[in-house]
Amino acid sequence: MSEDNQGILWEVFLQPKPGRPFKHVGSLHAYDKKMAMTSARDLYTRRGEGKGIWLVKSQDIVSSHPEDGEAFFDPSNDKVYRHPTFYSIPDGVKHI
Amino acid sequence: MNHNLFNYCLQLGDTSLILSHRIAEYCSKAPHLEEDLAITNVGLDLLGQAESFLKYAAEIKNDGTNEDDLAYRRKEKDFKSIHLSEIPNFDFAFIITRQFLIDAYNSLLFSKLSESNDETISGIAKKSIKEIRYHLQRSKEWIIRLGQGTNESNKRIQNAIDELWMYTNELFYDSESEIELSKEGTATLSSALEKEWRNITSRTILEAGLSVPENIHYSLQYGKDGIHTEHLGYLLAEMQHLPLLYPDAKW
């Protein structure tokens, strides 16, 4: 097998338990969906890290570009009023 | 001492131990990193199963022997591993085929053993069956992937199936301890698993676009009786080397 024939690159997301969000944990190479799933199980869940796995082909992820950073993200820096910190929360309200 | 139960535990433990060692030999040599880790995981599961059975065998023997003594200080003729587990890692196709044939067998055997009237055996079987179902899923997918892959992968996986098929008869050979223990509901007869095993393996082999070997000259002597392939002696020499050289070594 040649070095450049490792298969497709997949991104792996794990859910620690039902109801919780999936988090990105890493990536792997595999030739097909089934192989990607078994490899994800063997690589990333050996120590009980997850109860659910999502796989996405890396090439299918639409990503922002670091060079767009200034135009994309900097304008929000000076708009503190967008944070909901100017309201007083009644004492009885919890989990906010 | 219950000789039949002792021998039966060795039979179950030795096959897992020897196959586990074969997989350990392959560590760092798989086609890519992901597969290397995955197959080594399978080997570690098998080692855990072997440890449980050999520990129980040592308990039955009850003379101070422990599971390490049984693994590392027994002679070849005292091992009861099946021949298929002893076959060397000729290439990836052999490794996957050997695994698939044994996984299919173990999935049937261990699901029967989960109902054993011996609590230790049923306990080990219930824990192991989850691991084994996963092993079977993995090895089955590889058979299909290689069969439906390139001309080369198809040729090599078919070759491995053809070469290894002669050892499959032993899977369904009832050893003396099995026959005695199955009368009491402790063991299960290997011969009773044959039909379902042929169904499972043929279905996958056909799905992979491969053919099930016919008119095979099966091996006539069996590991379950302590008669082994020429490969086991070399494997044991390596596996047992360190504990024999440094009997009191601790790690």
Structure characterization notes:
The complex is a heterodimer of chains A (96) and B (251). Chain A has helices at residues 33-44, 69-73; strands at 8-15, 23-30, 52-57. By secondary structure, chain A is an alpha+beta fold. Chain A has a single domain, classed as Phenylacetic acid degradation B (Ubiquitin-like (UB roll)), CATH 3.10.20. In chain A, strand 1 (8-15) and strand 2 form a beta hairpin. Chain B has a single domain (3-211, 221-245), classed as Ferritin. The A-B interface holds A 1, 6-7, 28-32, 34-35, 38-39, 41-43, 46 and B 31-35, 37-38, 41, 134, 137-138, 141, 145.
Instruction: Report the principal-axis shape of chain B.
Output: globular
Largest sheet of chain B: none
Number of strands of chain B: 0
Cα gyration radius of chain B (Å): 18 Å
Radius of gyration of chain A using CA atoms only: 20 Å
Q: Biggest interface, and residues per chain?
A: A-B, 16 and 13 residues
**Major sheet: arrangement of strands of chain A:** 2-1-3
CATH overall fold name of chain B? Ferritin
Question: What's the pLDDT, averaged over the residues of chain B?
Answer: 96
Unreliable spans of chain A: none
Q: What is the helix tally of chain A?
A: 2
Q: If classified by CATH, what would the architecture of chain B be? A: Up-down Bundle
CATH class of chain A: Alpha Beta
Going by CATH, the homologous superfamily of chain B would be Ferritin, core subunit, four-helix bundle
In CATH, the topology of chain A is named: Ubiquitin-like (UB roll)
Structural class of chain B: mainly alpha
% residues in beta strands of chain B:
under 5%
